[in-house]
Amino acid sequence: RAEVEASFGREGDYVFFEHRIIWWDADDGSSADVRFLNDCVTDATWHASDETLFERIRRWLRLP
């Protein structure tokens, strides 16, 4: 769990019964969540960005 928390730069955000969950949302709309039980990863889900190419270029160039 410590390795995943270090990668995401924060501790778990949510505790559900004995499961602990870390989730992460990026600026591009992508996200991930990682579930732990007894400090071991039990499941991880990645959701790709929903940005169009034009939106991504605008974000990279910091355009309004």
Descriptive notes:
This protein is an alpha+beta fold and 64 residues long. Helices cover 23% and strands 39% of the residues. It has two helices and four strands. A four-stranded antiparallel beta sheet has the order 1-2-3-4, with helices on one face. Strand 1 and strand 2 form a beta hairpin. The protein is elongated, with a radius of gyration of 15 Å. The model has no long low-confidence stretch (mean pLDDT 77).
Structural class: alpha+beta
Helix content class: 10-25%
What does the average pLDDT come to? 77
- Reading the helices and strands in chain order gives HEEEEH
Topology:
Blueprint: H1 2-8, E1 14-16, E2 19-25, E3 31-37, E4 40-47, H2 53-60
Antiparallel strand pairs: 1-2, 2-3, 3-4
Observed structural traits:
elongated, 64 residues, 4 strands, alpha+beta, four-stranded antiparallel β-sheet
Summary of the model, kept short:
The protein is α+β, with helices and mostly antiparallel strands. The protein is built from two helices and four strands, in the order H-E-E-E-E-H.
